[in-house]
Design a protein that fits this description.
Chain A: This is ABC transporter ATP-binding protein. The complex is a heterodimer of chains A (251) and B (358). Chain A has 251 residues and is α/β, with parallel strands linked by helices. Chain A is built from 8 helices and 11 strands. Chain A has 2 domains: 217 residues, Rossmann fold; 32 residues, no CATH class. The chains are: A alpha/beta (251), B mainly alpha (358).
Amino acid sequence: MVSLQLDNVGAAYGRKAIVSGVSVPAIGAGAVVAVIGPNAAGKSTLFKRIAGLVKGPGAVRVSGSGKGRNAIGYMPQDSAANAVLSVYESLLLARKQGSSWSVADDDLVYIDGVLHALNIAELSFLDLGVLSGGQRQLVSMAQALVREPDILLMDEPTSALDLHRQVEVLEFVRRQARERGMIVMIALHDLNQALRFADTVLLIDQGAMRACGAPSAVITATMLRQIYRVEARIEKCSRNLDHVIVDTAAA
Amino acid sequence: MAAIEAYGDEITALSGRALYRVHTRRKLIILGLMALALCLSFAIDLAWGPAHYGLDQVIIALFDPGAVSDQVRTVVWDIRLPVAVMAIVVGAALSLAGAQMQTILANPLASPFTLGISAAASFGAGLAIVTSVPLLPVAASLIVPANAFVAALGATLFIYLISQARGVSVQTIVLLGIALVFTFNALLAFLQFLASEQALSAVVFWTMGSLAKATWPKIAVTLAVLLIALPLFARNAWALTAIRLGDDKAASFGVNVRRIRLETMLMVSLLTSVPVSFVGTIGFVGLVGPHIARMILGEDQRFFLPGSVLAGALLLSLTSIVSKSIIPGVVFPIGIITALVGVPFFFSLIITTMRKSW
C-alpha cells in the first residue's frame, strides 16, 4: 500500500523560497488530505514541489508504489488551453506519454470509463478551447485520473464548479481514494468542504506549515481569526457535523 | 458518479473508443489524400514549363530514362527535377520548423519569417554579397549560404535564449521577433545603400527567394536535416502535443519540458537556417503550412507532424508550378508567389472549416 511522507519540505523559485519546513507524518493509502490556507500561502507551490515540478530542500518520500515517477498525479489549478485537441485526445495524451504511437483498446476502455465516471462523456469530442471553466476543471481531473496515480494532487479542483458538481466531485474523489487505495491531497478554499470530506487537514500560511491534523482540530475559531482574519464559529449542524459560520472580517 | 472500472465494460460499441477509431481513420485518409496531391503536384511541376510534356512522358523519364529522348531526359532530370524536389524539401522543412516553433512557443504567429530568422538570413547573405566578409571560414563560393546560415542560426538561438528567461511571456517573444525583423531589415537596407549596383541587384534577387538556386548537394543537405529532425520529433510526439496544454500540465504528464524545448529549438534552428541559406527568403509557408495542417488534422502530433510536412511541401510545389505559369518562359522568384498562391487557399479553409485553428 502506498504512503506519502513529507520531511522538512521546502520549495523555491530561483533563490526565492516560497515554501519551507513542511513536515507531514506518513499518510496512508485511501486518505484524503485537504490543504488549506489564505491566498498566496504557498499551497500550489507545495503541490508542485511534491509533484517534482519545482526544486527545494527536504524530502518527499513515497513508498509502496511500483510506479516510480508516475506514482504522483498532479492536477494544476489553471487548466486553460487553446490547443486544437479534443477532450478525448487530451486524455489519451495524458495516458500515453513516453510510449509508442499505437493506441491499445485497453487504454481507450479506461479513458471511456473515466469520462463516464465523471459524467463528461458528452464532452469527448469537443475541442478543449470551447469548454467552460467548470468543464475544463472536470477534464483536467480526468486527465489526472487516466494516469492511474497512487497519489493525486488536486489544486483547487472545484473552484469553477456549481454546487452540485462540487459535492459530486468531492464524493467521487473520496470514493476513489477509499476503493483504489489512492492518497488524495486537495487544495480547498471552502473550509466546510475540508471539514466534510478530508481525513486530515494541512494548514499553510506564508509559506510555512501552521498545523496538520484532524479537520476539527485544525479548523478552529482561533485559527480562523489568526490566519484568515475573520470572526467565525464552528457549530454542529442538524446532522451533527462541524460547520464554519463566518460572522465578520476581523479588525 | 460511479467507479471508473464499473463503466469500462458497459460502454457500447459506439461510445468514445469507437468514435475515436473513426476519427483516426479519417485523419489517415486525409494524410493519404495530401500525399497523393503532393505526388500529382510534383509530376505536374516536372511536366510544366516552356516545353510541355505529358504526365506519362514525365513518369517514363523518371523511372526509365533510357526510353525517352535526350532532350526530355535532360529537361526533366537536370533542369526541372532539382527545382521540383527542392520545392518539396524546402516547403516541408520550413513548414515543419514553423509547426514546432508554434508548438513550443505556444504562439500562432511563430514562423521563421515572423520571428526575424529569415530577415537575419537575408542580412547574412547581404553581408556576403556586398562586403564578402565571411562569418564562417568557408570557400568563396559558399560565403553567401554560410553567412545566411550563421545569421539565421544566431537569430533562432537568440530567440530561444530569451524565451527561456524567467518572466518572458509569449507576447514578449513575438515582440522580440518583430524587433529582430526591423533590426535586420534596417541593417540590410544599410548594406544596400552602400552596395554597388551589381551587388544591390544580387541582394534583392536573393531576398526574393528562388528555387533556381537548387542543386543536388543543397537538396541532399536540406533533406538530411529533415531526415534527422523527423524521427526526433516523432519520438517526442506525445510530449510535444502535451506542451500545447501548458508547461505545468505537460510536466504533470511526466514530460521534461525544458529538455524537449531545447531539443526542438535546436532542430528548428537547422530546419530554418539551412533551406533559407540555400533558397533565400520564402515567407508564408512556415507560417501557414502548420495552420492548414492544424485546421484539417488538429494538434495531435502523430497527425499534425506529417500533416505539416505535407502541407508545406504541397504549398511550395504548387507555388513552383504557378511561378512558371504566369508568363510563359519566365520563372518568377518563388518567394514572391508563395503568399499569392497560399492566401486564397488559406482563406477558403478559414471560412469553410468550423474548427478553431488556434
